[in-house]
Amino acid sequence: MSARDTDWDGVRLHVVTGKGGTGKTTVAAALALALAAEGRRVLLVEVEGRQGIAQLFDCPPLPYEERRVAVAPGGGDVYALAIDTEEALIEYLEMFYNLKRAGKAMTRLGIVDFVTTIAPGLRDVILTGKTSESVRRRDKYGSFIYDAVVMDAPPTGRITKFLNVNDEVSGLAKVGPVRNHADTVMKVVRSPETAVHFVTLLEEMPVQETMDGMNELAEVGLSVGAVIVNMEHAPVLSEDDRARAASGELDTDEIVRGVKAAGLERDAEPIAEVLAAEAGDHARRTALQRREKERLESIDRPRYTLPLVSDGMDLAGLYDLAAALREQGAA
Fold first, then answer.
1. So what's the pLDDT on residue 116?
2. What are the ArsA/GET3 Anion-transporting ATPase-like domain coordinates in residue numbering (predicted)?
3. C-alpha distances in angstroms, 166 versus 60, 183, 196, 214?
4. Whole-prediction pTM
């Protein structure tokens, strides 16, 4: 395995968050592939129960166990785990209270849902606890099982509360296994080995949520990672043409001539009108992207940009995004 300088040398837990609709699950999967390149072993963890990872890697729904889902460039492996809250709670009860059989009975009675509803902080402790255990786990020779762990985390609006489990359990337990477990989790989350990355689109609301979320994390002392701009639309018109398109001053006669030259003489004028309108939309979107990029430049953190995959996301597109992340120094 060759040495490689990255922006995140020493980081072993990569938490990926973002406003809904920004593609954070896709970015988390691409980051896992990028980190696994050159013979590394990476675990990709899903905590929201949506089976988004299975869909991306075109595999059956993931059980509550670690499964290999992809081979990275250079021979590395990506494993995936979809954490089931009930199974994780049973595992937790067995680990700390030797109550596996009781835990299964609680599941049948619906008490698990009742407990995690009245004490939602406990659910977060269980989910983050399973992930942090994966980060710390070693083989019989003392080496880490995984070179890195990537968590597809809850959305930006909930990420600080989700990760700051000590505050969440303060009203549940002052001492005992729950408290000790939360303290262990926080040692991982607050360590230099953890970074929280924010996925955003170049749109006003996602950018604002990213900036607010980073500020909230910093206020509670959690490690802020990178900004990952997803689905950037590449300009297809020159700057001058975009300016004319935005102001409605494109030469429609020229567009009509181009349409006719393409063999569409019969409907050239209506087609030209549609193209002029699309050019105006494109110019306005490009201007919006530029404005939001300037806002993100005020954030003193690494920033990576991923292109819009126009044909829809598939496994090949995921590998392309992973390559783009590596080229920019993310892995």
1. 59
2. 13-187
3. 35, 7, 17, 19
4. 0.87
